[in-house]
Design brief:
alpha/beta; Rossmann fold; 3 domains; six-stranded parallel beta sheet; 23 strands; 37% helix
């Protein structure tokens, strides 16, 4: 439906219209002031060049539209006593959101030096996009925000994540028309097929079409309105249009649109909760069309600005050096009539404050935007309940992720009433062997079901959609509003969310420095179906590089774990599910894997992060090792232990130390990462002068990068994935990349002084097996019997 700005039905009295317009004008004035001014905030004297910042940074174009939305959300929150959160998709609109939080008082409560008077207004203006101040985007520093301005395309999935399991929460989501062109945003429209009207809150998308991006027209703003309606209806929404540029008419239309949307949401929730309605709701969406840079300069230097891309950032440039621009800026600021909006001390007048809700209902004060305040500890059982028995290392096998699935199923059961844990993943929960969770919760689903479907549940908390972007956005929104979760994904395809995790890490790092931000549950990844066991899917599914990407990020916020078996995976999972303010990456296999450590041993080993497996080596503490065989990852661990066994049999006089690394950041210096080892610890583990042959799960140069400052780095030789893959047998994958046990034995012989001559025959035998392997798999399609049937017999 469309709301005609000239419609006679009017939800606003004249007094309400006056106060809404006053609030909106005040917010616009404050937004412009933040971009331009560093003094004279109330224009109590004529504007002079020294009142203007020397560097003009910020974005005006989207700000008046965001101010309009904030003003009208205030009205309905106050009138209806709503608990609400807003996701500001056009994050460049930082001036608008900061301005509104200052008007409502939440900004001053968090930053007491930015008072609600002329002195505080001056600080508010000066700090914006200024050294030592605050960013130009909506950011962690902004009260009421859970969405960084750089996260273009993720607003709607964040909004749904916030709404899941928050039945009393309204999540408004402003979607910029540029953002609406991104793939992540396009996929996230389908989130309404997963929103449970009984247990979840409501999401009200507000598609803001102001016509332009930074330099080009916006697609959705240029297609005919009937075509846009068809698109939105196809997504499952009922559109409500608000279009105009005359402020009073737009205020009336926006108020009517808000009331219509919220009445519709209330009716849909009532039908599901009280009347038991089972059909999927068609939720409203507001389409707001206002000019870009609305109320700003109409023309600058003879060129149109308002309503064009020229208003996107700073409509008037070089104001200090351009008298005409300075004159236009003053006229622009005075057009809002600040003397009517603020008293002589710079405090907002009563008309400006009238629409604002009270207390925690204010958008800048909602606890849902500071989710750590709402967070509760997960009820986790003792790990012995899930541990696999290990009487002897390397004899029995388990699928590690299947074992973990039992733990996650119990977490689902334990949170069934409080509903604050979700498992997300792109259609891979069962593929990744986590299907035990279905016994505790089905898969969230509001669309059509067929008799052949399994585990679909209108109230489920397992989330599966074949869009890694949407999974990531859901989970981020869920965590930032005070809940827990885990993201399970094929290792090769988690790269799809590289840029999203970038922003989340930055958010966490910044939040840690803000005393008022309470810690939130960590973003936990389980990466499985990994590079070494994608032999059936082939080269396209073989990429272990996400770990490299993560370890480029802030050491304060990132952790990477490579548990080698089921019990170590349980220990690591228990740790990360209890942690706060991290991005934790766990890489673990789903295929049968040897059990190496008992549960008690696993706890100690994981707490240590890296350690000697004395039972696997031959040094026996009698003397220093001749060589260190190190490993990180489940398949590299198996190959190192097989190599250690070959060395024990073929070169029994050689003193071999086996070191396993679970926490990959342990290799870094302590000065560079909180989990890093001191030089003393590192040298004691790896020695300073003995060869180290390191079998690593991913790209070998990462290990070199982490350890390059160590004294013994010159002795370090790393084997890992070399971007050589295909559809083949499991063991052929490690052979192709020179990570196999036979190659590792050859590396030892090549690097231990004196062995090249003395062990030449052993080396030749190793090479012969590799050659025999090559012929065997082509003849039989399976790995060599001595590989396929191998077990540890140390």
């Amino acid at each position: 439906m469309s709301v005609d700005p000239r419609a006679t039905s009017d939800p606003l009295t004249d007094d309400e219209l006056r106060t809404l317009h006053a609030h909106w004008r005040a917010a616009n004035y404050l937004a412009v002031g933040q971009i331009y001014l560093m003094a004279n905030p109330l224009l109590t004297e004529p504007l002079r060049p020294e009142h203007v910042k020397p560097r003009l940074l910020g974005h005006w174009g989207t700000s008046p539209g965001l101010n309009l939305v904030y003003t009208h959300l205030n009205r309905v929150i106050r009138a209806r006593e709503l608990n609400a959160l807003c996701i500001w998709g056009p994050g460049h609109g930082g001036p608008a959101v900061v301005a509104n939080s200052w008007l409502e008082g939440s900004y001053t409560e968090i930053y007491p030096d930015v008072t609600q008077d002329a002195a505080g207004m001056a600080r508010l203006f000066r700090q914006f996009s200024f050294p030592g101040g605050v960013p130009s985007h909506v950011a962690p520093e902004t009260p009421g925000s859970v969405h960084e301005g750089g996260e273009l395309g993720y607003s709607l999935s964040h909004a749904y994540g916030a709404a899941f399991d928050n039945p009393d929460l309204l999540v408004a989501c402003v979607i910029g028309d540029g953002e609406a062109e991104t793939g992540p945003l396009a996929a996230s429209w389908h989130s309404n097929k997963f929103l449970d009207p009984v247990h979840d809150g409501a999401v009200l998308p507000i598609l803001h079409l102001n016509g332009y991006k930074i330099a080009n027209p916006a697609v959705l703003a240029r297609i005919p309105e009937p075509e846009l309606d068809e698109l939105l209806r196809g997504y499952g929404h009922d559109p409500i249009h608000v279009t105009g540029d005359e402020p009073n008419a737009v205020h009336r239309a926006m108020a009517q649109a808000m009331d219509n949307a919220l009445d519709r949401i209330a009716a849909l929730q009532r039908a599901a909760r009280a009347d038991g309605a089972g059909e999927r709701p068609r939720w409203p969406v507001i389409v707001l069309r206002t000019p870009k840079g609305w109320t700003g300069p109409a023309q600058v230097d003879g060129l149109p600005v308002e309503g064009t891309w020229r208003s996107h950032q700073v409509p008037l440039s070089a104001v200090r050096d351009h008298p005409e621009h300075l004159r236009q800026l003053e006229a622009w600021l005075r057009s809002y009539r600040p003397e009517e909006l603020f008293d002589g001390q710079g405090r907002p007048r009563l008309d400006v404050l009238a629409p604002i809700p009270e207390g925690a209902r204010r958008l800048g004060a909602t606890p849902h935007a500071n989710g750590g305040r709402l967070l509760r500890e997960l009820p986790l059982r003792d790990l012995d309940a899930y541990a696999v028995p290990v009487d002897k290392p390397g004899v029995t096998l388990h699928e590690p992720t299947r074992v973990l699935g039992e733990l996650l199923a119990d977490v689902m059961r334990a949170t069934a009433d409080r509903r604050d844990f979700r498992l997300v993943g792109p259609d891979e929960t069962a593929s990744n062997r986590l299907q035990a969770v279905y016994e505790a919760s089905g898969k969230a689903w509001q669309a059509q079901t067929l008799q052949v479907d399994e585990h679909l549940d209108r109230h489920g908390r397992v989330m599966e959609i074949l869009s890694e972007h949407t999974c990531q956005g859901w989970l981020e929104g869920y965590l930032l509003t005070g809940r827990h979760g885990l993201f399970s994904c094929y290792e090769a395809f988690v790269h799809i969310v590289d840029s999203m995790v970038n922003q989340h890490v930055k958010w966490l790092k910044t939040s840690r420095a803000l005393s008022w931000r309470s810690p939130v549950a960590s973003l936990n990844y389980l990466l499985t179906s990994h590079v070494w066991r994608q032999d059936h899917n082939g080269f396209s599914h073989q990429d272990p590089g996400f770990v490299d990407h993560i370890l480029n990020k802030s050491p304060a916020a990132v952790r990477v774990y490579l548990p080698p078996d089921a019990n170590t995976l349980l220990s690591v999972a228990d740790h990360v599910l209890r942690s706060r303010d991290y991005v934790n990456v766990i890489v673990a296999g789903k295929q049968p894997c040897f059990d190496w450590l008992t549960m008690d041993q696993a706890r100690v080993h994981c707490a240590r992060g890296a350690g000697v497996w004395e039972w696997a080596g031959t040094e026996n503490g009698a003397r220093e090792p001749d060589v260190v065989l190190a490993c990180a990852g489940d398949v590299p661990t198996q190959e190192v232990l097989a190599a250690a066994q070959l060395l024990r049999r073929n070169l029994p006089e050689l003193a071999v130390r086996v070191v396993n690394v679970v926490d990959i950041a342990r290799l870094m210096p302590r000065e560079e990462h909180p989990h890093g080892m001191s030089d003393f610890e590192y040298d004691g583990l790896f020695t300073t002068d003995r060869p180290v042959v390191f079998a690593y799960h991913g790209y070998p140069w990462l290990i070199h990068r982490l350890a390059y400052r160590r004294v013994g780095h010159r002795n370090l030789h790393v084997r890992g994935y070399k971007e050589i893959g295909t559809t083949t047998t499991p063991f052929d994958m490690v052979v192709r990349n020179d990570l196999d046990r036979y190659r590792l034995v050859m590396d030892v012989i090549d690097r231990v002084p004196g062995l090249a001559v003395r062990a030449a025959a052993v080396r030749q035998r190793m090479e012969d097996v590799r050659l025999r392997h090559h012929d065997w798999i082509r003849a039989h399609g399976t790995d060599l019997p001595e590989v396929a049937d191998w077990a540890w017999d140390g």
